Amino acid sequence: MERLAGKIILLSGAGRALAALAAGGLASLSQAPFDFPLAAFVAFPVLVWLLDGAVAAPERRGLRRLGPAFFVGWLFGFGYFLVGLWWTGNALLVEADLFAWALPLAIIGLPALLAFFYAFAAAAAKIAWSDDIGRIAALAVAFALAEWLRSFLFSGFPWNAVGYAAMPVPLAMQSLAVVGVVGINALAVFVFALPALLAGRDHLKLGAALGVGLVALHLGYGALRLSQAEPTDGAESVAIRVIQPSILQSQKWDTAERDRIFQAHLDLTTRPVDEGETAPDVIIWPETSVPFLFGDRPDALAALGAAVDDDQRLLAGIVRAQAVGEGGTDYYNSIVVIDGSGEIVDAFDKIRLVPFGEYLPFQEFLSRFGLRQLAQNIGGFSAGTTRRPLDLGGGLSALPFICYEVIFPGIAPRGGTDARLLVNVTNDAWFGDTPGPYQHFRQAQFRAVESGLPLIRAANNGISAAVDGYGRVIDGLALDAVGVLDVEVPLVEADALVPPFRPDIAGFCVMIVLGIAATANNLRSRARVN
């Protein structure tokens, strides 16, 4: 191992660049749908060794000394996001005649921008770099900080946070309840990078003990928590029907297809339940499932009222229009709740819009260069202002999330809402049969674990599912399946072995402890040299 590490440390030029790119690309295979954590145990030690060799020329001073580490981190991040997010370009092929020219911006430009967060992480870690386990701790803190910044800077895009690789199954998701995403990111990078110590003798036993211990705690806590979960037999529950019509994105806004699409949703809504099953209390359609504005088709509300019984509620994704100013109109990506009389009794407007998909950042400037958002049929969306539970009748409420809103950590904190469940409606048909829908669904599972509440997901072409508060799938529909999901969802909050402190605070405490250890080790190493 020392020999391999030495060769990697001494790489230069194109060899060093290719190694960093390859390591980042390999690390992305630890994410859904591949779920191969072993890839991260190879990729991060390679990154450590590359950073060992990222030494600036003696004449460089100040921040310029961090340049080689910054470049290695950027290449690692570019490889990671290029392999992990290439599928975003699929959305541009839905209307290829209009947007195919922008494929390089999606496939290469987005990873290139996101890679700067990992470049920052590598450079920041290099400040407290040492020769042994201290550098592993420094890298872990720096990556956790970079991922935290990625969750909100420039509107935020925390897709495939590096720590998610440590949580491929519910057994491994429960630590979110203790240290949150920040802590998971820090601890995951720390453990993934520990094999780099095999190339030397310093702290090898300590590293092995910490690695085995942290993995055992991670999985042991998950096993214990799941074993302590209260049985749901006899618990209060709600019968829910999820509609998955799998409408092709190329047909979704075709005026010639609108009546057929709407009728397909109605047919699935009124499909008889299987023998012995309970009629649904709540019916959920996916994001923008109604293919026209209600103002243009008042008969649509009447048809929905006819499809819904008096004691049922239907949640439908719609485009909502609101007049503004003199002759102006704002459009919102919304969810409406409709009762059996065909009346809209509650609504929610999407707050976090997709940049370049639902709105164009710096529109006045970028539009001069021919750039525009994918939602061209209505000229882009406006953002809502407040997230609040939707009234589903019978004293039941649900906290709504539209599409990629569900990827943001901490949006549904434990005890932070009076809602009894989470609802995520989405349309992943933009991305076809690629890793995208699987990654999106995995992140929805994490929000259920964070909140402790069951989550219902209605996706146009999948993955639709019901997930309990421990992240376990109760039932679901496969990608591109057409049908309904009738499921009895226990309204039980996951409260087994819940720590008395906030996970986000605990996560930052983990960062602080690792940061102190890295700094102390770095100072000790410098003292030995001097």
Question: Top keywords for this entry?
Answer:
single chain; alpha/beta; Nitrilase/N-carbamoyl-D-aminoacid amidohydrolase; 6-stranded mixed beta sheet; globular
Strand content is 5-15%
- Give the name of the CATH architecture of the largest domain: 4-Layer Sandwich
**Derived structural class:** alpha/beta
End-to-end span in angstroms? 29 Å
Number of domains: 2
Q: Describe the sheet with the most strands.
A: 6 strands, mixed
Order of helical and strand elements: HHHHHHHHHEHHEHEEEHEEEHEEEEH
Brief rundown of the structure:
The protein is α/β, with parallel strands linked by helices and 530 residues long.
Describe this structure in words.
With 530 residues, the protein is α/β, with parallel strands linked by helices. It has 2 domains: 2-228 and 504-529, no CATH class; 237-490, 4-Layer Sandwich (Nitrilase/N-carbamoyl-D-aminoacid amidohydrolase), CATH 3.60.110. The protein has 15 helices and 12 strands. The protein has helices spanning 2-9, 13-28, 38-52, 67-85, 96-99, 103-127, 133-150, 176-193, 204-227, 249-252, 258-269, 298-307, 363-366, 435-451, 503-529, and strands at 237-244, 282-284, 313-324, 328-338, 344-349, 390-391, 397-402, 421-426, 455-459, 464-467, 473-477, 483-490. A 6-stranded mixed sheet has the order 5-4-3-2-1-12. A 6-stranded mixed sheet has the order 6-7-8-9-10-11, with helices on one face. Helix 12 (298-307) links the parallel strand 2 (282-284) and strand 3. Helix 1 packs across helix 3 (38-52) and helix 8 packs antiparallel against helix 9. The longest helix has 27 residues, at 503-529. It is globular and about 80 Å long. The model has no long low-confidence stretch (mean pLDDT 91).
